Amino acid sequence: MTSNLHVAPMELRHRLQEELNLRGWKQKELAEASCIDSSSISYIFNNKQSLMLPQLHAINQAFGLPKHSFYEEFIGECCNEMGRLRPDKTSDFILHCIEVEKYDLVKQLVQLLYEETNRSKMIDTTFKIAERIFQSTKRNYSLPFYDIIVRNGYSRSEKIALSYYRRFLILRDLDTSGAGNEALCQLIEYLPILPDKLRLDAYYRILTFYNVVENWSKLLLYAKELRNIAFEEGQDDYVAEGWLYESVALMGMKNFEGALKITQQYAVYGDHYVRLARCNELYIYIEMKQTEPIEELMSLLKGDQVLLVLPIALESYVSNDAFHDAAQYLEKYKSNVDDLLSRKDPFHLKHKLRLTQALAQYYLKTAHHDLGFEYNALSLELALTLKNMQYVGTAVITFQEYELHATPEHKNRFTNILLNEVDSDEKSINHDVHGSFLVRFYRSVFGNESG
């Protein structure tokens, strides 16, 4: 590998010279066509100056070649005179390799990082590369590089703590109930080592995670921790968020009276929290199966906030056998219902799950059995994907309750969903994630290790 790196710059310049000769150009003509000054072209071709990636792109454009031509030979340009990767240049090159799906080149760069004999330098270089990629629009592709750091770190350093934090932020969105949960467990012991400016934010992200996966006991625990730490540091917004999520946790535990009391605790932290407290107060009443507050709450909501209320509002109407009101509600908010049903991100999936179950109950109770069984099947699939056993049980009980109205097709679909789950653990994994561009990249870098 090392000898190839020494040869690569000369090979690159040889290839560029061939293209120049093929066109019968002089270096001056290339300089004019590429808008690179003549002295730089001369230094580059004589290997007296490192070639920058934008310069390679400009030269390729001048030659009428694809932008990513000669990428294989460009790896040597990412190294300094000691043969070590330059973090800034390497991270920029990696992002362009990902863009054109040249994963084999990324794999070579990862291998170069592993070949660094000085572990401290390896971690320092890898961390700089990972951070640059994380701050880009392709932040998820920094995951393999943070993995190098946590696998090779030998002390409880700030870099290790930050790497665990970044991994959590990436994995919670890719595989919430699986890898995301595992990444969080690894992060917990490193929370005290995070930089002060990030520690409170990390606690807040943990709260949002436990809210999504509906782990109410953990949400309650970390809401109190965040509140106590934020109070000591005088960070009022985080104190208010701690109170807010404690209220959410109590509501999830069906302690509605406790949740209502705590809404008053964060209402004192400014107009924003006054509004949130009122909205959440109405939300809790609806969770208690009261239908009267529904319209007032809907009038207070903005944008996507409507999506979070749709399931509980429909549940409330159905629980009270207010089917006419439910029908009007579904008609009025049809576009929002369709919007939520189309969502695939982890945050909205749990609300989508609840909505599909509420729709199943509504249509089955109003004798629209085809639609009812359709939404119940969707609810079962979502519950298995999210590993939400409560809703798996609800879907099964719902099917059994209305089984007399089920056609053979309904029964076969429901049975197949359950059988596929039993036959293979992979059936419960979000295939949108595992077939994604990112996972193909990740597997190409680490091979079977990541499988």
Automatic annotation (TrEMBL):
Alphabetical list of PROSITE patterns matching this protein: HTH_CROC1 (PS50943)
InterPro entries attached to this UniProt entry: Cro/C1-type_HTH, Lambda_DNA-bd_dom_sf
Pfam families: HTH_3
Coiled-coil annotated residue ranges, if any: none
HTH cro/C1-type domain span: 16-70
The protein, known as: Helix-turn-helix domain-containing protein
Taxonomic source organism: Paenibacillus profundus
